[in-house]
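Late entry, evening session. Most of the bench is empty. Finally got around to the prediction I had been postponing all week. Sequence below, unchanged from the version circulated by S.P.
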Amino acid sequence: MTQYFSLADCDAVGFDLDHTLCRYNLRESARLIYNSFAQYLVAEKGYDEELLTVPPESWDFCCKGLALDMEEGNFIKLAIDGTVMRASHGTKMMTSEELMGVFGKKKWKYFTDATMASRTAKYYFFDNYFDLPGALLCARIVDCLTRKNNLETFDFWKDIVASIHHNYKTTAFKENTGVYFPEIKSDPGRYLLLCPTSVKKWLYQLKSAGKVLFIMTNSHSDYCRLLCEYIIGNDFTDIFDIVISNALKPGFFSHQPNKRPFRTLENDEEQDELPFLEKPGWYSQGNSDHLYELLKKMTGKEQPKVVYFGDSMHSDIFPACHYSNWETVLILEELSGEEGMEPESNESEPLEKKGKYEEQQKKPLHSFSKDWGSFFVDGNLESTESSMAFTWFCKRIHDYSTIVIPTLEAIAEISFLRMCRSQFLMTPKSKPMVKFSV
C-alpha cells in the first residue's frame, strides 16, 4: 500500500516568491523588518525607546512555530496533543515549575485539533521569516509593559497591526513610505540573494519540458517586479506563464461564496474584475478555482496536477493542500541546521565595510534556539531523549506537505533527467516529512 509522487508527473508548477523563489540575507532582512515595526511604535504610539536597540543575544528568541497569547503575553511551543512543551512570558522563559503552575498537563486553552486556525483575534502563530522579528518585538513589548506598568493583560496587538499597515500597505512601495520598502529599493543587494544559476537552469528545464510555471505571491505587483528583476533578471517573464501578485493567501484558496475575482493590472494599479481567466499573464488577487480552470485550458487536461512551493504553512502549504488538493513542497531552511547557511551577501565584503548589525547578530534565524530547542521535537524541561515528542507545527508539516526541502537548490542541483526518473515514496494516509532525495 504505497503512493508515489514525481515532479515529472505534474502539469503545473507554482512558486511563492518571498523566502521561496526569492531568498533573503536573513540577518539583514530581520533587522530591517524589526526596525520597520519598532520605529513606528516608538514614534507614533509612544512605546519605550529601548525597543529600538536589540541586544545581540536577543535574536536567540526567534523560533518558528511559536504561538502568542495576545492577552496574556505568553509565547507557547505546543506538542501534537496540544500540551505546552515550553513557554515564556515576554522573553522570560518559564521554568518547569512555572509551566506546571500556569498550564499543568492540560491542553492549551485555545487548542482544538490539528487543523485549528493559525491566526485568530486571541492568538497568533509565527511561521515564517517575515514573522520572526515581530515575535521578538512583541516579546520585548511584554517585557517593557510588565516591568514598568506591572500589567497582567495586554492590548498591544492593535498597534502591531497598525505598524504593519503603515509599512506594508499596497501603496507603500509606490509612495516610498515606511521603513521597509525605501531600504529595499535603495540597496537591494544588501537584502536579496541572487537566484542561483542552478535554479534558473532548472526553471528553464521545467519550461522546456512543457510545464506551466506560475508565481503566486502576497506581495504587491511593484515589489514583486523589483524582486524578480533583481534576483532572476528582466527575462523572468519568459520563464513564468502566469504571475499573480497581491494574492491575499490563504484567502486565495477560498471557495464560494468568498472567492475573490482576479483583477487586471495597469502600471501596477489594479483595474477591472475578471469573471474568469482567458489567457496567461500578470494578474492581481483572484482565487484558486479560476486559476485551475485556466490551467485546464493551458494543459489540455481535465484534471491537471499542480505542485506548489512555499515557505508558510499558514499561507501556502495548508490551504493549497487542504482546500485545493495540490501537491505541496515546503521550503524549510531549518532542515539545514546551522550548517549550510546562506551567504551573508551576494559577494564578500571587507570587515570594515560590514554594518554594525552584521557583527552583532551571531545567530542565524533558522538555526537551533537555546531558548526554544528544536523546531521539530521537544518535551518539557525535564524530558529525556526517549520521551521527546513531535511539535504541533511538525505534525502540520507531516500532514500537509508532500515533501520538505531546505531550499530550491536541493532540487535544482539534481539533473533534470534524473529528477524525472525519481519518485517519492508516501504512505496513503500520511506523507513523510523528508528532505528531497532521489
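Two things to note before I forget:
The longest helix spans residues 26-45.
The first strand starts at residue 3 and ends at 5.
Will write this up properly tomorrow.
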